[in-house]
Amino acid sequence: MSRLLHGGLVDRSRTLSFSFDGATYRGHPGDTLASALLANDVRLVGRSFKYHRPRGIVSAGSEEPNALVELRMGARREPNTRATTVELYGGLIAASQNRWPSLAFDLMSANQWLSPFLGAGFYYKTFMWPSALWEKLYEPVIRRAAGLGRAAGRPDPDHYEKANAFCDVLVVGSGAAGLAAALAAGRSGARVILAEEDFRLGGRLLSEFTNIGDGPARDFAAAAEAELAGLPNVRIMARTTVFGAYDGSTYGAVERVGDHLAVPAPFAPRQRLWRIVTQRCVLAAGAFDRPIVFPGNDRPGVMSALALATYATRYGVSAGQTAAFFVNNDHAFAAALDAADAGVEVEAIVDVRPDPALAARAEALGVRVIQGEVVATSGKRLSSVTVRTAKGSETFKVEALGVSGGATPNLNLTTHMGGRPTYDEALCAFVPGALPPGMTVAGAAAGAFPLQECLDTGARAGAAAASDLGFAVPRPDVPRAEGAPAGISAFWHVEAPGGFAFVDLQNDVTAKDVALAHKEGYRAVELLKRYTTLGMATDQGKTSNTAGLAIMAHLTGRSIAETGVTVFRPPYTPVAMGALAGHHRGKDFRPTRPTPTHRWAQEQGAVFVEAGFWLRAQYFPQPGENDWLTSVNREVKAVRESVGVVDASTFGKIDLQGPDAGRFLDRVYINTFSTLAVGKARYGVMLREDGIVMDDGTSARLADDHYVMTTTTANAAKVYQHLEFCLQVLWPDLDVQLASITEHYAQIAVSGPRSRDVLVKVVDGADVSNAALPFMGVLETTVAGGIPARIFRLSFSGELGYEIAVPSGRGEALIRAIMEAGAPYGITPYGTETLGVLRIEKGHVSGNELNGQTSARDLGLGKMASTKKDYIGRVLAGRPAFLEEDRPIFVGFRPLDRTQRLRAGAHFLAVGAEPTTANDEGYMTSVAFSPTLGHSIGLGFLRNGQKRIGETVRAYDPVRGGDIAVEVCDPAFVDPQGEKQRG
Amino acid sequence: MRIPCPYCGARDAHEFAYLGDATVTRPDPAAPDALDTFSAYVYERANPEGPHDEFWYHAAGCRRWLKVTRNTRTHEILAVAFARAEETTP
Amino acid sequence: MADMLADIAPTALLPDGHYGAPSEGVRARLLPGGSAASLVARRGAAAALAARFAEAGLVLPAGPKAAAAAGVTLVGTGPGRWLAFADDVGVLPGRILPLAQGLAAVTDQSDASLMFEVSGPRVRPALAKGVMVDLDPSAFGAGDAATTTVSHVNLTFWQVADTPAEAPAFVFAVPRSFAPAFLRWLAASAAEFGFALSGAGRG
């Protein structure tokens, strides 16, 4: 056991049992999986991405590049989880990943001997040729060899949700700067959200043995948290990672509500995705301890100096029986002394600098200070390090090595809106450049590393944010922190012969790879990143980027500032897809809109189909009907021979009122509506301004200043929006008022030669004779015992037909009344399939034809267009290309061999023509088997089609192997004179 | 992105539908060169960098068409007004 | 948790009952059907319309607010646009229609929406899971209304006029065909606080 005898913020009175790779271990509440593994002497936790080298824990936070594990089992298995951020719980099960057959013995580690071939650009160079091998050989092999963990491959049993929060000041991070900022803003009364990704507030204050005011830093953190928790205007969100900065001062965050439990609490989500809208943001996200690149720097046991100290001070764990440090800065030097204070056996501190400021304190503690560089390590787990000094080299035994090349401000969020960090030579670090609007940066994230500066800049930022917003900010009460030296000497890379010197541990990018990229000309930072993969994958180079850039700068002879830096995109850390989906999965993937008659249709055994959000009856199979076509043929026949009923409520319905309503419709439809008589309806076509048909439908006039319009189901919202545009932007002088009434009305269509017989029985005595309610007539009356109704005598099927609109809550009552009234005629419910067959038989255009490419003339509707007025789309519908004789025009098709089946999507070719694009004469848009005619029929667009009625062309469909001779015909296959609907 | 709707208050951009350039005006359809002017009106668009007047429709809110001045570089919203001038008061 | 709704068809309202945790953090009640209408002022007539309503003792709010008087709740949904709700089905045709005569288009919307009153000690955190409007008492109080989108459902809601900040009740006017989806979202969002649904019968 490597648990120190005392100390740390773990609850030693309680023990939690967990397993890793099948072995059982014990930890304490307050541990992370990483600290618990280290406490149990588990140092080897994974294999590296490319070379499968053994790897250990490197950090103590979300920047971890190495210690990625599979967490949990079965459907809850989650790959690529950072052991350093997983809060330990009893029964936790984790497994190492990217190893085969076992972690200790990984066959793929042979890859490292192939490293001369696997260097930067390996994939680009190797897998270019022959391309035939890509899918068969390279990809499967690479997929097995490389990559990270395995997805669960089963539906996630947990639930996720999204939530919205609003505040005045969002503080990201709860270290010294974040706490000071939250206190300053919170005390003013501003609404503050303090987000902390850790499960405990305090940041580095939890890891450092220093004093604030009269007491230990961690007591300050606890007191600050207690005060904040008592302020009603402050919301503390622990276990919450702010992962993205977006436009409008909006931030994305993920709250791990149940990740610290084996199974989320009943009815609680596992994770919650927050959209936080704030006025100001104080980024106090701290800094990362970055590595120094030297040969053998990836050996398990080599880790961040600050992490090594954190494991000792916060978790009471020594990462090895003996430890050494390799640093270039005072902060890490102090951390080494903290580790020694906590009980770690520190053999030596190797510092590249002469006479480090804290040398005397080290010697007082009995810790050797060596001026030099670590040039080699050995052991599968670290067993010794070799140090090069002015006097020569020295090797000594040690189990852990804490390395620090300095602090890299965690400025990730500052770059999400395009800000570029700038290099600060004195700090040896990139610091935030241009910031997202409303953001300020405080503490180490801003390069203000000393503790006092963290407190000061945090308090100032919090106070300024609140006072900007008009809050009265009390005089800031910033406590005094113990002083500490903050010296650093730029040092990135130990040039020494020997093994791999890794820059990016997650992507196995070495100093040699950077040199190779340089040699091959990939010197710009963006090219370096993509050529070597430096800074990619789950950690996005949080710790590795700066050293990589520094090495490139050295190679090119430019400064680091001149070399520049890549920027970050959201998310800061990986976000589960489940969290992004939230409630919207399975049945709730999107809203389901039932029609007013849905329950009735279910009783009738309907099969349903999605139409946008709507769920509509597709067809109504009867006992003994084994395929949809049999049902549809029966339904079509019933409508043609007797009577059928269909729910047409999904059509868009718009109420138009006002003295200018008629003039307005004249301007949006190609035909005229101002002359329509009250009590009559008319079919209308509306264009887009570019001359293409937007939508069609009927509009009826209920009064001089009152019309009601129907739109297609799909375009309901689009047409409403278009009409409002016309009224509000194009013709603000028109006095017209719109209201959507789609939801208020159920609309039931009764069609077929016996439909009037049914209607007579449904209306409450109104005269619906042909004289009283002629074709295209409209009647306002009551039906089925007092239900207010509008009856429109319309026909989509070509048969005598009526559409009856009633308040949607009465739609079900109406259809039941219609079914009862129609029983003597064998009234037949039908769905969207039959609706489609009926309209194809009748040659009516629908969505397939109104496809965003066709003009009214193309659709054979050109003669509807009025020449006496202007309307939307008129001018451009008249452009020469739209009037060309050779343009594909809407016609019908039937197979010469009537037994053959037509296919929509087939293209038309002249008989004997080569199937080339140049010979393409148009395409088939809609097909159906016509039970009325007993064969397949089709609608489509054929060059100069209307003049070619009677010709034979080929319907060519190479995808499905079709090449069928078809006869061009009038699109109206049934009742071309329209006598039935007028009868 | 958030758009401060003059009626509803600041709302997330996904409540709005975008149309585009609000500096163009529907030409006179009776003019002899209408085909040319309509072609330009429908198809020709500048792609300015910086402040740009655009039409946005508050589809999920008040259903008003808005004229929004947006900085195309930063997405900063500089001004918002109802497209129909008379609607300056609710 | 997703299991709670897995066996309930998305095409009907959730049935009355208790969902989620045993507590009653959130309550929703489907209000009995009354009548509703949209009012859209004729061009330039909004002020005259408001004045005529004021004479009749009714308030047409100037902005996204809900005002209740004389058995009618009038909710601002846009410039010159309101929704009117009344429990008594005679009120709108009998009172509002004549008042609006010549100054506004009145359209019957009685069946367009289902009305849910949502309340309870945890109502705000539950609603925050879909409502993208700030519901903090400092930003949204009694009588405030919003037309917005909640979990893909476009709707209008308001905080009932006489409900205090510490125990608010909200009324959601939900388009009828979207009401099942709305309730599923609400039940899922309120489940961790305990959710009691009434008024929807057997769904």
Describe the structure.
The complex is a heterotrimer of chains A (983), B (90) and C (203). Chain A is α+β, with helices and mostly antiparallel strands. Among the domains of chain A are: 188 residues, FAD/NAD(P)-binding domain (3-Layer(bba) Sandwich); 154 residues, Gyrase A, domain 2; 91 residues, Aminomethyltransferase beta-barrel domains (Alpha-Beta Plaits), CATH 3.30.70; 99 residues, Aminomethyltransferase beta-barrel domains (Elongation Factor Tu (Ef-tu), domain 3), CATH 2.40.30.110. In chain A, 22% of the residues lie in helices and 27% in strands. Chain A contains 23 helices and 49 strands. In chain A, strands 8, 9, 12, 13, 14, 15 and 27 form a 7-stranded mixed sheet that branches. Chain A has a 7-stranded mixed sheet with strand order 17-23-18-19-20-21-22. In chain A, strands 40-41-42-39-33-43 form a 6-stranded mixed sheet. In chain A, helix 4 runs parallel beside helix 5 and helix 4 runs parallel beside helix 9. The longest helix of chain A has 18 residues. Chain A is elongated. The model of chain A has no long low-confidence stretch (mean pLDDT 94). Chain B has a single domain, classed as Folate-binding fold (2-Layer Sandwich). Chain B is 11% helix and 37% strand. Chain B contains 1 helix and 6 strands. Chain B has a 4-stranded antiparallel sheet, with no helix packed on it. Chain B is globular, with a radius of gyration of 15 Å. The mean pLDDT of chain B is 94. Chain C is of the alpha+beta class. Chain C has 2 domains: 118 residues, Gyrase A, domain 2 (2-Layer Sandwich), CATH 3.30.1360.120; 74 residues, 2-Layer Sandwich (Alpha-Beta Plaits). A 7-stranded mixed sheet of chain C has the order 1-12-2-8-11-10-9, with helices on one face. In chain C, strand 9 and strand 10 form a beta hairpin. Classes of the chains: A alpha+beta (983), B mainly beta (90), C alpha+beta (203). At the A-B interface, helix 18 and helix 22 of A face helix 1 of B.
